[in-house]
Amino acid sequence: METQSTSLVVRDRPIIQWIIGAALVILAVLNPLPGMSGTDPVALIIRLVLGVGGLCFILLSPVLTVTADRPTQTLTLHSKSLLTGSHREIPFSQIEAIQLDIHRVHRSSSSSNNGPSYRTVVVLTNGQVVPFHKYYSNGTMDKTKKIRKLREFIGVGGSEMGMGVFGTLNEITKQAQAALKEQQEDQKEVHVTDRVN
Hints:
Elements: E1 2-3, E2 7-12, H1 15-30, H2 41-60, E3 63-69, E4 74-80, E5 85-91, E6 95-103, E7 117-124, E8 129-131, H3 141-154, H4 169-196
Antiparallel strand pairs: 1-2, 2-3, 3-4, 4-5, 6-7, 7-8
Helix pairs in contact: 1-2
């Protein structure tokens, strides 16, 4: 993180994806599969798949640069890989919160990893959610530290608990109130209909 009096820059590098990609490429190039010769067609196909998969990890894993700029009152999300890129600017006035989005995976009890995964999102005043990344990943410490710095710098809030798969607590409350109101209106219609009959 780079903090200046007028701007805050947060970078998120996909180091794990790069390491996985490099390992796959190295396996594809250097390691002939046990029990197969280097010219065996099956071994060549497997090595080709490993190599292409590794290159995809390296070429498509983006570096995310988040810049909060006070003079322009803008939060910029700039994502750039070797092959792709995206750029989005969000005015501070449209930001309601910056927080964690939690994705809970319910797997069978035999699975060793039933824990949640997370991603950082910006919740806009119109209810739209803008994720920093499309994917979720494990660990909250680094994400929470960056979120707190951004919130403090911009002057917005957010939930420490995260949004979860059902949205923010406020959104859940709004949905419950709307459902209750709809149910009450349905009951009123039933009473009116009974009197007419």
